[in-house]
Amino acid sequence: MQAGHTKNIDRQVENKFNAFKEYAKKYNLHWSFVRDIDEELYINNTIYTEDMSGDNWIPLDDVLK
Fold it and tell me: For the chain, what is the domain count?
């Protein structure tokens, strides 16, 4: 698997991400979208990109430390 490539098969994932983001903003909620590459989980609550190698996808382990 290429770096940053995911197994995503949901064509509506970006719409769902943006809907969650707007809902959280409206109700002042903390949120993150979680996805995986191989066995590692990543979170994002800024800008959705399919390519997970950018700065917006953060390894969950880094956040939980």
Answer: 1
